[in-house]
Amino acid sequence: MMDSLGPSWKFIGPYMRTALGGGDGGFEHIMKHLGPAVQRWLKDMETNSFEYSDENLKIVAQSVQEMQQGADMEEVEAQRDELIIDTLKAKAKATALI
Fold it and tell me: How many Cβ atoms from other residues are within 10 Å of residue 18's Cβ?
């Protein structure tokens, strides 16, 4: 999400992004094209959904702790905040974007 859909959704939102992705056919074209795949993705997500339990929470928490190892969380927070502010300033200048 950080390097693909996220920035695009941030600037124009998911519906306008989808409409642009549909080319000349717009939103309807891309939804007809992706609709069957989206239905399979939703079914797969339901089949593999996260069921909350204390045990599952411990597994996920351990995974996140491993991912954070070596990261300076204060620096992560500072860089995140700086990027958000810079992004909001840039978007305010882009008057054609909704």
Answer: 19
Sequence ranges of the domains in the chain: 1-49, 53-98
DSSP string across 8-70: HHHHHHHHHHHHHHTGGGHHHHHHHHHHHHHHHHHHHHHHTPPPP-HHHHHHHHHHHHHHHTT
Q: What crossing angle do the helices spanning 26-47 and 5-21 adopt, rounded to 10°?
A: 130
CA distance 45 to 39: 10
Is 0.85 topped by the overall pTM? Answer: no
Say whether pLDDT at 73 is over 80: yes
Per the listing, tokens 């069957």 go with: 36
Contact between residue 11 and residue 97 where contact means Cβ atoms under 8 Å apart: yes
Q: Is the model's pLDDT at 10 over the cut of 80?
A: no
Query: What does the pLDDT look like over 14-27, one tens digit per residue?
Result: 778 778 877 788 88
